[in-house]
Amino acid sequence: MKRRLAVAIGVPALLLAATACGAGESSSTADGKEKITLILGQAGEPFYISMDCGAKQAAKDLKVDLDTQGPTAFDATLQNPIIDTVVQKKPGAILIAPNDDKASVNPLKAAQDKGIKTILVDTIVGDESIGLSRISSDNEAGGVAAAQELAKQIGDKGSVLFIGTKPGVSSVDARQRGFEKEIKNHSGIKLLPAQFSNNELAKANQVVTDTLTANKDLAGIFAANLTTADGAAAGLKSTGKQGQVKIVGFDAGPQQVKQLTDGSVQALVVQKPYDMGYKGVEFALKAIKGETVEKQVATDFVVATKENVSTPEISKYLYKESC
Amino acid sequence: MSAVQPVLEARGLTKTYGHVQALRGADFSVNPGEIVALIGDNGAGKSTLVKMLSGAIQPDGGEILVDGTPVHLPTPIAARAHGIETVYQDLALALDLTPAANLYLGRELTVGGPIGRFFGFLDNKKMREEARKSFSSLGSIVQSVDVPVRSLSGGQLQSVAVGRSAAWANRVVFMDEPTAALGVVQTAKVLELIRNVAAKGIAVVLISHNMPQVLEVADRVEVLRLGRRTAKFKADETDVEQLVAALTGAFTNEPVTVGEEQAR
Amino acid sequence: MTGQTPAGTDEAPAKKPHDDIAVITPDPALAAVERVADEAVEPVPSALQRLVRSSSIWTAGVLALFIIVFSILMPTSFASADNATTILSNASILLVLAVGMTFVIITSGIDLSVGAVLVLSAVVAGQQMAKVGESGTAVVVTALVVAVAVGLFVGAVNGVLVAYAKVPPLIVTLGMLGIALGTARILTKGIDVRTSAMENIDTPQGAVFGIRLIVLIALGVLIVGGVLLHLTRFGRYTYAIGSNAEAARRSGVNVQLHLVKIYALSGLLAGFAGFLSLAKFGTSGLSGHESDSLGAIAAVVLGGTSLFGGIGTIVGTLIGVFIPAILANGFVLLDIQAYWQQVAVGVVLVAAVWFDQYKRRSRNRS
């Protein structure tokens, strides 16, 4: 028992004693390449995979050492420990899609305090001092475009529903704002109270089926991100309303494209995560070199429909499952 | 005739399980410091009788007397309060605990006065010392009171179980087939242990199928058949043949009712 | 059987006829021979032997190996005081869960609900504290009391079902996992509760002697748990029940009540962990704790506690917690994907359990 105690005390002691080996480390690797780490919002989601692909391409083009991490679920309690650990590697810059606009602040602040340049992609945090640059879709404009497309699809009359992920996710909040602003311009359309999916398929599905039960005149749905659109389409399918109730989704992962082609979803507002990733690495490198970067960059989007989805102009923006 | 009052006595105990009458007015008695063997064929009711006398089950009828006074033993804990302990056939030892810990299980010594008692801080040192003393006073060779019981041999396990009961009992210790699984040398040790327990004034009641062993170690033998006592012997006044005869019903020296005779 | 008096020899001496067989105590030489004969079956292992055979020594060895390898590969990023702080801070919550899980597994039970109870406690605490205010002592105290109360309650329910309704712990706690997590989602409508009232638990500002407050708290829980398990009657009964519940019962231990207390303790610590998580991350983390229960079980088992009960130590749990903590950290530093780390922990866990089984089989005597 005493020996076990000694060993167990020795473990953290070993950890801390090894500090002696610690000399100041520069943020570039032996071959002179700058180190940049990309922390995705969620590992394995096609949107973020595409972002990773763009980043990897930029890393190749600009000769930068890029590595990618991401939490298994879109949750700050999983992402923050990753940020903490990445900070230990002292990369020149961190590119990150923060999971929570409040909870993600502290670890990023710690990163910045250590001289690591921070660039935010896709989502942002409330604290303005975090992030030398914020690269995301002009989500509000995206919401506006979705509203316009949906209005067109439902013939400018009926009730519409906005389904977001969770409040506090900046990108989705902006889409909601844009959507609601534009719908006001369509007097024939009634806006139902917004619902949220917590970024879960099952929840999005349930929200749709519940809303259908409560509102017989539901004509259109705007599902504000990939997973939500997925779940919403499944919900319509399960109640046999696909095609009757129109959905405009956001994001174009493989599953969404399939839904577009088989008619369960009528249009997709497609972001450009690949561009975000590419630009992110560009900016990160500039920041490391001490050059100034634009504070806000808005990437734009395209609207995909069944008719145009196979055209090269649209298909190159569809999200990937691998690079 | 003996003026010694039995330390534990059963009179006319009955117990019925559904259609089966496990005990039909069973009697039993054991005197202080005596070693009594309880024998009977399978189904005779030995287990039931012992469980009743050690508080594990309740009789439907009849009475139990401790030092001549009728008592009620609703649980084994109540029996323990009367100084009656049991060594079960499965030994009921916690194998991962030490002999000292097993000895004191449920009756731990605490350290640190009333506060220590409230929080239950164990006085392991004292328990180890007392355990060592207790085991050696019985002549049992338990090599270490401080290793998990799992690492002891079969005979030592038995010693720990017997020693535990003997340490706490002050009237009777029941033992169910104590040497059934043991080798020659270990059996001898356990029998010696049993004698040492009795020498301390604690009565020992032995259930056994092993007639020669019974005659070797017991002072008296009581025979149970079909839920009643059918014979009583002094060990040195009988032999294996007679015991077997009593067991099978060919011999009896207890008064029986007419009805019983016909049933046989 | 030796020692039989010949049949019909009624002149057998009045005293017991045991002279024919080997007598133990009078002859020390003979006693020594017999002791050897007995020992040939299984000599009592010394303390050192038992230590070497124990699982936690091997886990400690594996852990030391990981530390050495990672330190060599990444001398400045892994082997730094800063990184040590990161590892310790991120292991703290798991440690608190694992302390409670140790007690449960020693009784040969299991608690799959701890991660969900953590989330539920964080949710309820977060909602209640918001009603009290934005920040300040009253707010923090509210959160703490509420979180612990929720955990204690859920744990006690688990305990009652296991002990009195006799439902297997696996089923009870699996069911409770769903109930707790579902309730958390209903209460929040699927949206995380957030607060910034307790940030100092994990910042340099709140550190004491240079150690983050959350780490100190977790170590405090570990020490209290250790004292409880190894030095008190409560701990002794825990081992007894895991080793042989029937023997404990017959010895007068109220096994059922004790089991309720054990699961209540596990729930209480899960609630406390919920408070710590809410404090550290500032969010209830609805989706972030799904693998916490299995992580705690893995840590406890890696630390040498047997799933079959009766064996385990708090120190072992501390060692066990470090394996996933260090792997998680080392893998990110080495740019290895999170999923590989799950594979690695799984492999180490299976190896540890196999090793434990192998030792158990080779020395089992039934």
Protein architecture, described:
The complex is a heterotrimer of chains A (323), B (264) and C (366). By secondary structure, chain A is an alpha/beta fold. Chain A folds into two domains: 31-137 and 273-300, 3-Layer(aba) Sandwich (Rossmann fold), CATH 3.40.50.2300; 139-271 and 305-315, Response regulator (Rossmann fold, 3-Layer(aba) Sandwich), CATH 3.40.50.2300. In chain A, 43% of the residues lie in helices and 18% in strands. Chain A contains eleven helices and 13 strands. Chain A has helices spanning 2-17, 46-62, 76-88, 105-113, 139-153, 170-183, 201-214, 226-238, 254-261, 273-288, 312-315, and strands spanning 35-39, 65-69, 93-96, 117-121, 133-137, 158-164, 189-191, 195-196, 218-223, 246-250, 267-270, 296-299, 302-305. In chain A, helix 6 links the parallel strand 6 and strand 7 (189-191). In chain A, helix 7 packs across helix 8 (226-238). The longest helix of chain A has 17 residues, at 46-62. Chain A is elongated. Chain B is α/β, with parallel strands linked by helices and 264 residues long. In chain B, 35% of the residues lie in helices and 23% in strands. Chain B has helices at residues 46-53, 76-81, 99-103, 113-119, 124-137, 154-168, 184-199, 211-217, 240-248, 258-263; strands at residues 8-17, 20-30, 35-39, 61-66, 69-71, 84-87, 172-176, 203-207, 220-225, 228-234. In chain B, the strands form two sheets. Chain B has a six-stranded mixed sheet with strand order 6-7-8-3-9-10, with helices on both faces. A four-stranded antiparallel sheet of chain B has the order 2-1-4-5, with helices on one face. In chain B, helix 6 (154-168) packs parallel to helix 7. The longest helix of chain B is centred in the C-terminal third of the chain and has 16 residues, at 184-199. Chain C has helices spanning 28-39, 47-53, 55-73, 81-106, 114-132, 137-163, 169-188, 213-231, 233-250, 255-281, 292-302, 314-333, 338-363. Chain C has 13 helices and no strands. Chain C has one domain. In chain C, helix 4 packs parallel to helix 8 (213-231), helix 4 runs antiparallel to helix 10 and helix 5 (114-132) runs parallel beside helix 7 (169-188). Chain C is mainly alpha-helical. Chain C is globular. At the B-C interface, helix 2, helix 6, helix 7 and helix 8 of B face helix 1 and helix 9 of C.
